[in-house]
Amino acid sequence: MLFLILAGSTGVAASAREETMKAVVEGSNGFALDLYARLREKPGNLFFSPSSISTALAMTYGGARGETAAQMARVLHFPADRAALNEGYRALLEATRPPREDAGYRLSVANRLWGQQGFGFLPDYLALTRDVYGAELAQVDFGGAAEPSRKQINAWVEEQTRAKIKDLLPVGVITPLTRLVLTNAIYFKGDWTSPFDRNLTRDEEFHVTSDKTTKVPMMHKVHDFRVAAVAADGLKLVELPYGKGDLSTVVLLPDAIDGLPALETKLSVAAVDGWLASGARRKVELSLPRFKVESQFSLAETLAAMGMPLAFNPKDADFSGMSTEGELHISAVIHKAYVDLNEEGTEAAAATGVAMALRAAARPTPPVIFRADHPFLFVIRDNRTGALLFVGRIVNPAG
Prior knowledge:
alpha+beta, Antithrombin, Chain I, domain 2, Alpha-1-antitrypsin, domain 1, 9-stranded mixed sheet, 7-stranded mixed sheet, elongated
């Protein structure tokens, strides 16, 4: 989930909507890998939802103007045309509506604004966030009841993520100067198209480094999967679909035990697209660890360092498209994510908050061996749109 806090159209042809959605997805994926390049500097397991972060910041961008907006657009890979951005997000959110019951997975995205009661938010801004992002405004009293307001927002997040994301906003993030909090919550639970047999799971060695191992529960499956070996980049990948194949997890495994850092430096939208395109269905003898990961990030400094410092500057930020009452700036961007990958499938959730405050039959061939027994990357991808919903790294499945 992503949380943003702030203190103190007409329809188009289907083909045009698809093009605007494609531009938004490509931008979101580009931002995802740019952000990953920053977050990977911290050691250990890593998991986040670039889709959640981009959406929450897109709602914030709707009220940005001048150089503040220009910086945000560059960092977030937004198209220059605001109308195209809005139509693209509208189409993307419509494309990720809850699936039919027999799809084999659940995917829900929810947005909400939390505004100071009596504060002069511009009607055009509230209409934009409501009509494009489905984000209704809930009025709260940050000025007189900051702590109850924080708990109310956290309770909404917990409900939207089926209790997987709790206490998104820590004590102290909401203050009497807070005027607006923008939240995005995403929840996913999918059953593998071909589940693993729990009876085949057993504790085996996982190489954390070339000279350090740990015992982890390793799942096993022999099945036809989309798989690729990219010798030039020193990696293999396997795609594990959910349900009828609308979504899938793609595991990117470096050939070398200590090859993860080198693989991370090669990540780009073009590289990932190329690796995926090179795959083909083969019989695969798959070994994959069972794991759970929880991550939490405070992203203000990271985003500022990526090239949008004005948005966080109490004196110079320009969010005049939100309100003409007071000088608003982003005071916090909080993101929290959770994933549980097991024999039946995957459950994942994330939330983002942005807080804004006032200035103050051929011949059989042997199966491909894909053994993920050393650090690897993985993404949960919406195959209908190409959007990277979640991105993660497993260095040690044992935690």
